[in-house]
Design a protein that fits this description.
By secondary structure, the protein is α/β, with parallel strands linked by helices. It folds into 2 domains: 77 residues, Alpha-Beta Plaits, CATH 3.30.70; 446 residues, Rossmann fold (3-Layer(aba) Sandwich), CATH 3.40.50. Helices cover 22% and strands 17% of the residues. The chain is built from 12 helices and 18 strands. The strands form 5 sheets. Strands 6-7-5-8-10-12-13 form a 7-stranded parallel sheet, sandwiched between helices. Strands 2-3-1-4 form a 4-stranded antiparallel sheet. The protein has a 3-stranded antiparallel sheet with strand order 14-16-15. The radius of gyration is 23 Å and the shape is globular. It starts with 28 loop residues before the first strand and ends with a helix.
């Protein structure tokens, strides 16, 4: 069980009384901007406060008390936060027209590190034609688990991500379009005119629920539950239902309101397990009172912490098991490094920030009731990029490690990463698939693969690495646990999230700390900031938590654990 973080009580803007932030006499000015306003308790009173402060209520998530409002950029946040009905307010995004040109994707250099390598294809065999390349599938023993429990269609797995390509031949058989939702709206550019998502592809700037313009969410979905249909690849839980709960932008940003909406919807819609391979932008760490931040920035971060916490608590009460990525910052989350990347939105806003472990949180990873997942490579070495530490880790899973196997022929090969579904539209946009559907020479060099069904449908696959890739392996095992041990019928079917976590952790395969415990990655070309020390013992440690997730052990030994 991961260790809870002690949170210190500190004064909050708008939390105790209106006197903390006097209401400015002048009306808000500047370009219209979107804000998220968090009610203290009375949502109606908070909505009235929004209007009184010069804003317009767009929508309200009453489960959490989070209001989406539009208002002039300057002055609104302080005015509305001064009202005693309001916990706090945070600027969400600038509203404006889309610029010309394509989207600017949020940097994910860790996940696509292998893009500079050349693939060396291996022989293909396994449950599905490409499964022989899925070393993560074998590591989790999913190939054995499915002989006992392949996953039940009544188990709904929500992918809170950038979207899911529901037309992909490996995802379509398990895709639940009816329950899928898109909680985002494309953002053309930020307040500085920097391209974010770029021109809207669909009328109203809201993508369909079976669409993914980034590729991250589709990759995650494939690892969780690609169908075992004799085509392409199969997932850890190839029989479960996949539900797109989109909260990420095309560009890869994840903002507060969509994340909160996705979580509360998951609780209300009977989603059994959700996968969250992201952190809530724009702050890598949300600090309650960081002296490096302005008062407005401090208030924004407190609002994010409180709103995300409410949403996580709500989903947990409703029976949702929440599996989260530890992150790719190669840091001990109990002793975080300085943050030089926040805020990452809008552009050119980041400034250096010392991070205090007591009062700074990365969300949702360090929120309540989450199962934190770290990443390892094919050799079970902790991936160089993976966050770690006994404070937040629960389990570990295959996440890919491009630089694994130093001194061997498989060092720096994309096959050390995780192969999963790739949307054709993204492949075309990235130049890896041509207009006719052929993998380009650039795509071949990156290991992009194509499978063609008897009816002519084509599916594409790409290699990625990250704790974002480890998390869906754990999510798939959690879905198998619910499939095997869930109780009830119809809408009442499900399983207590704490019981799911108990089985997941107790059936994980223990991995001891390396000897010596301190590992540097200098041979692999990393600097001293990547050096990591593993604390704990074989039963529980900072590199692997309770161990590597084991699907076969989970579906065959979980009953005994639940009896205790």
């Amino acid at each position: 069980m991961k260790r809870p973080r002690l949170l210190l009580a500190v004064p909050l803007i708008g939390l105790v009384s209106g006197a903390l932030v006097p209401v400015a006499s002048a009306q808000p000015t500047g370009p219209v901007t979107e804000f998220t306003v968090l009610a203290r308790s009375d949502v109606g009173a908070a909505e009235r406060a929004v209007r009184a402060a010069g804003g317009t209520v767009v929508e309200t998530n009453r489960a959490v008390g989070l209001i989406t409002a539009t208002a002039p950029a300057s002055g609104f946040a302080s005015r509305v936060s001064a009202d005693q009905a309001v916990f706090g307010a945070a600027r969400s995004q600038a509203i404006g027209s889309a610029p010309r040109g394509g989207k600017k994707v949020k940097p994910n250099v860790v996940e696509k590190e292998g893009r500079g390598a050349t693939s060396s294809k291996r022989a293909r065999s396994g449950t599905d034609p490409l499964d022989d390349q899925l070393w993560g599938l074998k590591s989790t023993r999913s190939d054995l688990a499915r002989t006992v429990q392949p996953g039940s269609k009544r188990v709904k797995v929500g992918i809170i991500d950038t979207g899911v390509d529901g037309s992909h031949p490996d995802i379509a058989p398990n895709f639940d379009r009816t329950d899928s939702r898109n909680f985002t709206r494309d953002i053309g550019a930020d307040v500085n005119g920097t391209v974010v998502d770029g021109p809207c592809e669909y009328r109203g700037c809201v993508d369909p629920v079976d669409h993914d313009d980034n590729g991250h969410g589709t990759h995650v979905a494939g690892t969780i539950g690609a169908a075992a249909n004799g085509f392409g690849v199969s997932g850890v839980a190839p029989g479960v239902s996949l539900v797109n709960l989109r909260a990420g932008q095309d560009s890869g940003f994840f903002f507060l309101q969509p994340m909160v909406d996705a979580l509360t919807y998951a609780g209300d819609a009977g989603i059994d397990v959700v996968n969250m391979s992201f952190y809530v932008d724009p702050w890598l760490y949300n600090c309650r009172a960081n002296a490096a931040d302005s008062p407005a920035e401090q208030a924004e971060q407190r609002t994010i912490i409180e709103a995300a916490t409410r949403a996580l608590n709500y989903a947990h009460r409703k029976g949702v098991t929440m599996v989260v990525a530890l992150g790719n910052e190669h840091t001990d989350l109990g002793a975080p490094q300085d943050d030089t990347t926040s805020p990452d939105y809008p552009s050119n806003a980041a400034h250096p920030r010392p991070i205090d472990n007591t009062s700074c949180l990365t969300m949702p990873t360090e929120g309540p009731h989450t199962i934190g997942v770290g990443a390892f490579g094919p050799s079970q070495a902790k991936a160089d990029y993976s966050n770690y530490g006994t404070e937040q880790i629960s389990v570990s899973a295959p996440g890919g490690y491009f630089r694994d196997g130093f001194g061997t022929p498989w060092y720096r090969s994309v096959e050390n990463e995780i192969l999963s579904a790739y949307p054709r539209n993204v492949g075309v946009a990235e130049g890896n698939i041509d207009a006719a559907g052929n993998v380009t020479p650039a795509g071949v060099a990156l290991g992009v693969q194509k499978a063609v069904a008897a009816d002519g449908r084509a599916g594409y696959y790409q290699w990625l690495q990250g704790t974002s890739m480890a998390t869906p392996h754990a999510t798939g095992v959690a879905a198998l646990i619910v499939s095997q041990y869930g109780k009830g019928g119809g809408a009442s079917f499900g399983m207590d999230p704490d019981a799911v976590q108990r089985v997941l952790e107790a059936t994980a395969s223990p991995i001891a700390c390396p000897v010596p415990r301190t590992v540097d990655y200098l041979d692999e070309g990393r600097d001293d900031s990547f050096t990591a020390t593993c604390a704990g013992d074989a039963a529980f440690n900072g590199f692997y938590g309770h161990g590597a997730v084991d699907a076969y052990a989970a579906v065959t030994h979980g009953a005994a654990i639940l009896k205790n």
